[in-house]
Amino acid sequence: MAGRMRNTTKVEALIESCRSEGKWQRVIELTEELKTGSPNNECLANFLIGEAKLENYLEENAPIESNFAKAKSGLQDARRCLHLVTGESGQKAGIALDAYLLLAKLCYACGEYEKSLENFVKAELNTLAEKELTLRSLKILAESYAIKGLCLENQTSKPTSKFKKAEKEAEMITCFERATDLGLLYLQEQDIASYSSATNSAANAGSMLAINSTSNMGGLQSSLGGSSLTISTTIPANPLELKRHMGAILETALQRAPIVLIKAGKLQEAIERYRTMLNAIETKTTQSLRLTLARQLAEVLLRGVSGTIYTAPFTKKPTGQALRSTTTKRLWKPRKYAARNQFTPRNHHEETLLLLLISEALAVRDTVLSQSPEFRVARQHAMGNASAVYDLLTLATVRWGLVNMLQESFEKALKFSFGEQHVWRQYGISLMAAGKHAHALRVLQESIKLTPSDPLPCLMAARLCYESLALIKEGLDFAHQALKRETKGIRPTRSQLFVGIGYQQLAILTTLKSERDSYNKLALESLEKAVQNDDNDHLCEYYLSLQYALLGNIAEALTHVRFALALRTEHAPSLHLFALLLTASRRPREALAVVEDALDEFPDNLNLLHVKAHLQLHLQDAELSLVSVQKMLAIWRELYEGQVSVEEEKHSDTRSIVVHMNPTAVSSQMSDKDSISRVEQALSEAASSLSSFTPRPGPQRPWMIQIKIWLLLADAYLNIEQPHEALNCIQEASQIYPLSHQIMFMRGQIYLYLEQWNDAKQCFLNAVSANPNHTEALRALGETHHVLGEPRLAEKMLKDAARLDPNCPKIWFSLGKVMETLGDYTASADCMATALQLEPTCPVLPFTSIPLTFD
């Protein structure tokens, strides 16, 4: 047909040009002119009018089910014209095949799938040989394969056998694959034609003016030239304009091809189809489609492909027919990118991230920055695309530990995310995961403003304050905000629980007894109310049990921790608390059994191993404790060595010192002049160490955990009478952070063992100076003063320790001995009685040693 349409007459050339550009109303006008000038072309005229009416109708009415009834009446003239061409005259003119293909399209638009397939049989679509085609013919053929595939997919009649079902499925897949190849080729050729038209229009302006001098055709030709130039140089600005260029049918086929393969269980073939389409040279029309395809392939790789079944692109060598097709020129295949230095992903991670980064770049390019009302629809469409990409990017980067990459992507997204709470919230979460807690809190505060009725961002901010920033009062304020936002009648959130946690932490941190009692009362009330609101929440029961434990009500605490474990058996913090409660009930062997059972479920849990090692020391099994601590070191290497790499050095700054010194606790003691002088003394003594001290690279939390392990190892060595090994452990810990009050305290313990009393006293003084709330250091300092014959100083230190931790029997016992030395036997007896009263409910480790949990 293409050869016959290329006649020498100007009208026929104009008609062909208008057909390629989709100017159907103009085609009808020119066809009427053609019939008038040449009556012998009546058959061709009928075809052109039928085609134009069909395409004109479909541009305004999509071929969807809701339009089927309307299409049957609206396409009657087009159907009649095309039927006239399928007879003998059409066969002689060589346009009957095209007429059958267009009739199949018409029947599809009317919902007549069987009739559509019959027309494809008459057109012998499956037997067509590859040859050079015009733009219009390429599009007709691409749409024909697409329509045939869609008709086969939507057929109501089901195959009668498995063989016929498989045959139909294979034919449907073939149709969609051919439709995508021809469709992409058509769009590539359309781009070339538009570029050539624009170039020729500029180069041949003189000849165009000469043609315009013709009386009847001048105005038409001039209009055509201008219109063609406009189309070729304008990039479609929205999806509707893209559909006008590509057509709804073709766009559906391009997206449907890999989905059909996935439905058929041919996942690898679907992935290869995605890759083939993405590797085709990009055109103006496929830019938005490319975003969809890249995002869909990334989703397929994330959800359906594991590393074991993944095959890298372009690794399979073609064989058989595929090899023959690569050695011969394929006229109906789209042109592909091919460059010597072209990057090819080598594994699952690289391909998924590459696709998502391409999708992100495309989505960001299409975003609309203007907030004007007329751009609202375009802005929402672009934002929807960007949000979908960022959600997938979140899944991929978190899965592979690339949180910093995610955070950088969200930073770029903020420029077009004004008022988009989803992006702000995700950005805040990514900052939390990257360890940038202060920045994350500011972002979450913005998210709170954007969603005035949602308690979730308030709870996230509260958790951040409690867990990472030591801003307990600010966290409590956020928890109260979340509580106010709760909607009555709907399942309660954890707002009430977070309020209770806030009061509980304030009670732990405060040093004034009246304030502590007040906060403990508020915490107990809030946590009991949280349990009443949701008696199936294990975390509410856990924190209520912890509150009773902190108040010394061990029996009630055991009851509630059992409730927590009944609701969630495999909850490590609940098992941790249960073990400590058993030790407070003077059942250390049972506690050790609980911890060992818990470690069967959580073999890498360092907190449980820490309890196990202390229990073994408590039970005089120092050799076994040594083994447990060495295992902790091995686990630390497995878990954290990757996190403390040199690349993360920018995150390891002096803030670790501030956090470790517990600024809340220090500030509460700064009113005491003695405390200030002690801090100055400790800092001056540590100056020589700090002058050569360089912070360890990477995040600081893993290093703090390692310090804790080294100190426990030193304790174990001390228990097996190896003080020099213990000193080596202290030295290892000091290389990480020499100003740690815990290191200073443990060094003092070694000097006590060696009976070097003055050195021990100095170490304990340094520890108390670094952290005035460290009760163990205060107790040890008081005991050392007592040994050195300084009972008044011992009394002061031990009373300070008792004020901070009134439930420690060791402090009261040591204070009793000091008071006896001072001759105050009544006070001594009271202290000893208090120690005896507290001893049965004293755990092997403080209940406050259990880290905060929100899981």
UniProtKB/TrEMBL annotation:
Q: Which residues form the Tetratricopeptide repeat protein 7 N-terminal domain?
A: 5-204, 238-409
GO terms under cellular component = plasma membrane
Q: Which residues form a coiled coil?
A: none
Pfam families named in the record: TPR_16, TPR_8, TTC7_N
Which example biological process does GO assign this protein?
protein localization to plasma membrane
Fetch the Gene3D superfamilies from UniProt: Tetratricopeptide repeat domain (1.25.40.10)
- Sorted UniProt keywords: TPR repeat
InterPro entries in alphabetical order: Endocytosis_PI4K-reg_protein, TPR-like_helical_dom_sf, TPR_rpt, TTC7_N
**TPR repeat locations:** 421-454, 741-774, 775-808, 809-842
Briefly, what is this protein's role? Involved in endocytosis.
Family, according to the entry, reads as follows:
Belongs to the YPP1 family.
Name listed for the protein in its UniProt record: Tetratricopeptide repeat protein 7B isoform X3
Q: Which organism is it from?
A: Bactrocera dorsalis (Oriental fruit fly)
Gene assigned in the entry:
LOC105222224
